Amino acid sequence: MIGIAALWISVLLLGGGLALDRVLSAAITRNFDDGLNYVLTAMIASAEIGPDGEVLFNRPLADQRFLEPNSGLYYQISAKGHEDWRSRSLWDRALRVLPEHDDRTFHAYDSKQFPGEDLRIMERTIVLPGSNTRWMFMVAAARAGLDDQIRALRSTLTQSFALLALGLIVLTTLQTLYGLRPLRRVRKEIVRMRTGEKSRVTEPMPAEVLPMVEELNALLAHNERQAEEARTHAGNLAHALKTPLTVIMNAATAQAADLGETVIREATTMRRQVDHHLARARAVGRRGAAQSRAEVWGSLQAVERAVQRLYPETRIDMDGDKEATVRVERQDLDEMLGNLIENAAKYGGGSVFATVSRVSAMVEIVVEDDGMGIPPEERTRIFDRGVRLDSGKPGTGLGLAIVRDVAEIYGGSVGMEESEDLGGLLVRLRLPAA
């Protein structure tokens, strides 16, 4: 930032300085030319044709430098067929008349015709009364004084603009360093968090960086929640696997006759436990993804086809909003709907009805069956891991627990009621709309 600012300041000041130099140099040169113009006008006003047909002045010119040899101020009047009339200051030199010049108005130009002395010449072609001759009036002055003024101007401009550039760059440097100071404070706070001294950025910050600090603290809190959830999942999984492993170890130690059946049964339980905790971990990992979205109707159709193959005698009907979309990963949505519809088909009397609707900022999915239902006092406990009210049918009691955990992770909910239409159980799943 400092380098770019310094480069930009230098470019702007250089451009401005060159433009100002041209303007002021032109003004000084114009002022110098005005002096030559005054002298040339005085020469023309004083000139007349003498008896011999030559030009003469009816009054002497006021500037004494015309009388001093090599004084730096000269005049000359020339015409074709006439001898040049020169000022004494020219001594044995003469101004060169350019044949291509026929200046009806005042014309000024630079010349190097005298070695070691640059000249500024102003000339004009005049026809005097009483003569048809075209006389070239010329006045010349050494450029040394003019060049000295321009050099002094450029030196002043260079020093002034250099000082201005230095001041602006120093000011930009101080402003940048001061402006970025809060970021260095944030970096020091992060170092303290990394070394374990602090867990959050608590030092007061300016309003410009406060939103970043708040987002950083929110990110740290989110990561801590995810780490705590991961530790909880690991502990729950270890606890869930401990009992089946103990049963298998006891059966193997006792060399039980039904060891094979025991291993298969307990391994199935462990696999469902692992699936349950993997589903929770996957949902937690995807929870913060803003692009997570799934079409409810497409997921319902896929689950209906899968469950229909498992329970061909069950009729599954669906109705409602076919355009509803939820802010949930498709795999997690399939997991929740699969558990609900499979349970309805497994424990129902042969009819399952699913309805999709929008309720405010949520999408509500209702799954009803015509089974025996669940007593009100058991509807909360049934969502706990491993709870089964009907042990006569295969299962591990983890399906509804997965539905509840994944729905809550995404900011949704699940509840149970009695179905008024089918007479069995009604499960109401609510998920945030996308």
UniProtKB/TrEMBL annotation:
Stated name of the protein: histidine kinase
Compartments, as annotated in UniProt: Membrane
Transmembrane segments: 161-180
Keyword Nucleotide-binding: no
Chain ranges of the Histidine kinase domain: 236-434
Keyword Kinase: yes
One MF term in the entry's GO annotations: kinase activity
Entries under InterPro entries matching the protein: HAMP_dom (IPR003660), HATPase_C_sf (IPR036890), HATPase_dom (IPR003594), His_kinase_dom (IPR005467), HisK_dim/P_dom (IPR003661), HisK_dim/P_sf (IPR036097), Sig_transdc_His_kin-like_C (IPR004358), TCS_sensor_his_kinase (IPR050428)
One Pfam family it belongs to: HATPase_c
PANTHER family hit by this protein: SENSOR HISTIDINE KINASE TRCS, SENSOR HISTIDINE KINASE YKOH
SMART domains: HATPase_c
Origin superkingdom: Bacteria
Location (main, coarse): membrane
Catalytic activity: ATP + protein L-histidine = ADP + protein N-phospho-L-histidine
Domain HAMP intervals: 177-228
Lineage: Bacteria, Pseudomonadati, Pseudomonadota, Alphaproteobacteria, Sphingomonadales
Keywords: Kinase, Membrane, Phosphoprotein, Transferase, Transmembrane, Transmembrane helix, Two-component regulatory system
